Amino acid sequence: MDKIETSKMFYPLAISLALGFILFLCGYGVYSALFLGIFSVRHSIVFFVFAVILVLASKFVESRGAEFPNYILGGAIISGVVTFILVSVYNGALWIVKNGFPNLDVTLFGIGLATIISFVLLSLISSR
């Protein structure tokens, strides 16, 4: 196996595993926030992160050619999604630090499922 074939196989694997672990943490963050009521991030920090990402995302959408109301709406949607993911990952990481990983079967199943989902999403994005 030459170097090009190896990179075509292992780079998607590494990226999918990394995104799968992030998605696993995001799932635990959503679980702890919704079902257990544990929200580890203050609301002022969440709003500040949302505002910073809103400005950056709006300027990005504007640079892609969007007009006035559309680039603010697009920036708000992007900012909401990114802020939700960041807060969920942080909340999930704190949940796992405080309570530890679940048993090995649940952890491997969760990371494996999240890796499959991230690989499918990456394949859909890269096929365009």
What does this structure look like?
With 128 residues, this protein is an all-alpha fold. 84% of the residues lie in helices and 0% in strands. It contains 4 helices and no strands. The chain has helices spanning 3-34, 43-63, 68-99, 104-126. Helix 1 crosses helix 3, helix 1 (3-34) crosses helix 4 and helix 2 (43-63) crosses helix 3 (68-99). The longest helix has 32 residues, at 3-34. The model has no long low-confidence stretch (mean pLDDT 88).
Observed structural traits:
128 residues; mainly alpha
Beta-strand content estimate: under 5%
Question: What about the largest sheet?
Answer: none
Low-confidence stretches: none
The helix-strand sequence is: HHHH
- What's the number of extended β-strand segments? 0
